[in-house]
Amino acid sequence: MPLFQKHKPLPLEGLLKSELVESDAFLEGHGIPKKMANQDVEATRQRVRVLLEARVNRNHFNKMWVYNLLSTLYFSEGKLKETVALCLRAALEHPTDPRAYYCLGAVYYGLSQETDTEKSLAGIDVKEMPWEFQEMARQNREFVEQNQQPVQAFRNSKPAESRDEAAKLAMKYFHKTLMCNISNEDKRRVQTHIRRIEVQLSL
């Protein structure tokens, strides 16, 4: 066996195969088989959240899949403070895993956006703008379509940080993500996020 073994890159989101097996076994052990999720999505989501919260509150140290699943649930429900608190704990306990940093970057980036800016962008013909603005507008539309609850939470939020401070925190956590073992494709994705923030801060 070689002294230095190359490890597979870790994902920015989602679970590893081994984590899927463990999380499925955990849920099935608590009477939540996979087929139930397809039958009653909302009821299953609530049951899973209660189980994961109990596990997080009971244990001082949790495996990354527990934090990942619960923070994903919180984020999808627009619970931004809970998402941040959980991801900060996950990052402290699993400092080499990119998922908590990436989630923190995404939340703070969302908090750095202003509704007025979105409205003004909507009235601009982005085809005449530099490609960075075109890409920013396209990704913004895509995110809004796919994440209605967190988007509404972002719009209603009054963060303790200013918009620029939130953007700088997003950049900080995206840079921490780049320091982890991630794929080249994911590196390019994170670097694109960072460039978008740099453009935003330069306006």
Structure commentary:
This protein is mostly helical and 203 residues long. The protein has a single domain, classed as Alpha Horseshoe (Serine Threonine Protein Phosphatase 5, Tetratricopeptide repeat), CATH 1.25.40. The protein contains eleven helices and no strands. Helix 10 (163-178) runs antiparallel to helix 11 (184-202). The protein is globular. The relative contact order is 0.12. Mean pLDDT is 83; it is low at 1-5.
What's the story with the biggest beta sheet?
none
CATH topology: Serine Threonine Protein Phosphatase 5, Tetratricopeptide repeat
The CATH class is identified as: Mainly Alpha
Mean pLDDT: 83
Work out the helix count: 11
List the helices and strands and how they pair.
Elements: H1 17-29, H2 34-39, H3 41-58, H4 64-76, H5 80-93, H6 98-112, H7 115-122, H8 131-146, H9 148-156, H10 163-178, H11 184-202
Helix pairs in contact: 3-4, 4-5, 4-6, 5-6, 6-10, 10-11
